[in-house]
Specification:
Elements (H helix, E strand, L loop, with lengths): L14 E2 L25 H21 L6 H10 L2 H11 L5 H13 L8 E3 L1 H12 L1 E4 L2 E5 L4 E6 L4 H4 L7 E5 L2 E2 L5 H7 L7 E8 L4 E8 L1 E4 L3 E4 L8 E4 L6 H12 L7 E4 L8 H8 L8 E5 L7 E4 L11 E5 L5 H12 L3 E5 L8 E7 L4 E7 L1 E3 L14 E2 L6 H9 L1
Parallel strand pairs: 12-13, 13-16, 16-17, 17-21
Antiparallel strand pairs: 1-18, 2-19, 3-10, 4-5, 5-6, 6-7, 6-8, 8-9, 11-12, 14-15, 14-20, 18-19
Helix pairs in contact: 1-4, 3-4, 9-10
Length: 414
């Protein structure tokens, strides 16, 4: 995916700045007789007019292409509050006809070729942002029920549970004083995903210390781990799977390589298949492990703004071994920008399928009622001003039908 958690925004009065996300497509308008329905209240009509004006103004200010005021005015005349309410009563696509109208307007204003820009109602925004930013709200504990209790199989290292010492292999015995023996595994998982801000007391057997203890955890938002090591079976050939980019990805990347031993790396394989992106700044941080400080990376050019060239950060960790990057049709956004930069700088070869063609800079803008618009705000450019290809990156080694990219690479390194 293709999202910008740290991109600077100019905040209009009706917007509030959000963490900088895939896409949600609203239905297109359809014709035909409308069912008789109660006319919307005056305040509903006012809400509609306000939100439509905010949508237009936001896209006029930030969408990467010009938007038409005439299209906006034609839409408001063609879709008054009563028509939108009747349409929504028939389709039941949204809880509020005002949001139906906003979604339809976004589809009218954006380019017909744009498959990313969309409006989301309040009921969809939380899940969307969680996916975009790779952020979770729970205790960070995964596991399975056993005869002894709930055996921990994974503790997210950016969670409070990890900070308080819980580790893989530990056993949960009680949650808030309730023994887990009489609970189903599904019930236990629900208790480990409480409402944000709530506190949960756990009785735990710490396997390494061979002792029981109690810890109290608060349910908080945290960044999910997105980097994991895959055993290649070959000495000196670590395979790092990067599932997504978020603000902790570079830290996780460095930790995995440090645990492996950077000096032991003879050939690094990065698996970015199915990685749909994240903030470009997260990709930039990892590029610093491969390139000199201040080396030019990629540029963005937002509407009414001067172009900005992003450069590689200074990092203590430097990777000098050959690099292979695995990509496929779902490698997009920041993952695509990252892969393309390593290919262009001749740091890595790409193996796999042509990528998604989703390297546009995209941003989220929140509205006061909890709805939001997710939209393209800039094309992205290589350091030499070439535009990233709209149809995706072409791998150096494309796959033949039925081939597995990782197996192909590892067999070639044996």
């Amino acid at each position: 995916m293709e999202f910008t958690a740290k991109v600077r925004y100019v905040k209009p009065m009706f917007l509030r700045r959000t963490l900088p996300a895939l896409f949600f497509l609203f239905l297109t308008a359809f014709s035909g007789p409308c069912f008789a329905a109660k006319a919307p209240a005056k305040n509903d009509a006012a809400r509609l007019a306000l939100l439509l004006e905010q949508v237009y103004k936001t896209m006029d200010d930030y969408y990467y292409l010009p938007v038409s005021r005439q299209t906006y005015e034609d839409f408001t005349r063609a879709f008054p509050a009563k028509r939108l309410k009747d349409l929504n009563d028939q389709s039941k696509k949204t809880e509020d006809f005002v949001h139906l109208g906003a979604g339809l307007l976004v589809n009218k204003l954006k380019s017909p070729a744009d498959k990313f820009t969309n409006f989301l109602p309040p009921s969809k925004t939380k899940e969307f942002k969680s996916k975009v930013y790779a952020v979770t709200e729970d205790l960070g504990i995964e596991g399975t029920k056993t005869a002894e209790g709930f055996q921990v199989t994974k503790v997210q290292k950016h969670s409070e549970a990890y900070a308080q010492g819980l580790r893989t292999g530990d056993i949960l015995l009680k949650i808030d004083g309730v023994s887990l023996g009489g609970l189903e595994e599904k019930e236990i998982r629900t208790k480990l995903s409480p409402v944000l801000g709530s506190f949960v007391k756990l009785e735990v057997f710490l396997t390494a210390k061979k002792q029981k203890t109690e810890i109290t955890l608060e349910s908080k938002s945290y960044f999910r781990e997105t980097v994991s090591m895959i055993d290649s079976g070959l000495p000196g050939v670590p395979v790092l799977k990067i599932a997504h980019f978020n603000q902790k990805t570079s830290e996780d990347f460095a930790d995995e390589l440090a645990a492996y031993g950077v000096d032991s790396v003879k050939h690094l394989v990065l698996d970015l298949r199915d990685n749909d992106g994240g903030p470009p700044l997260a990709a930039r941080e990892i590029l610093g492990f491969f390139l000199p400080a201040n080396d030019h990376l990629f540029a963005i050019a937002r509407k009414k703004k001067s172009p900005v060239m992003l450069t590689a950060p200074a990092t203590a960790l430097k990777i000098k071994a050959p690099v292979t990057v695995l990509v496929n049709q779902k490698t997009g956004s920041a993952a695509e920008m990252f892969s393309g930069m390593l290919q262009a700088k001749k740091i890595a070869v790409l193996v796999g399928e042509k990528t998604a063609g989703a390297t546009y800079l995209k941003s989220i803008y929140d509205f006061d009622d909890g709805s939001m618009v997710f939209m393209i705000t800039s094309l992205t450019f290589f350091y030499d001003r070439r535009v990233y290809p709209a149809d995706g990156l072409t791998p150096d080694t494309p796959l033949a039908e039925g081939q597995d990219a990782l197996r192909l690479v590892l067999d070639g390194l044996r």
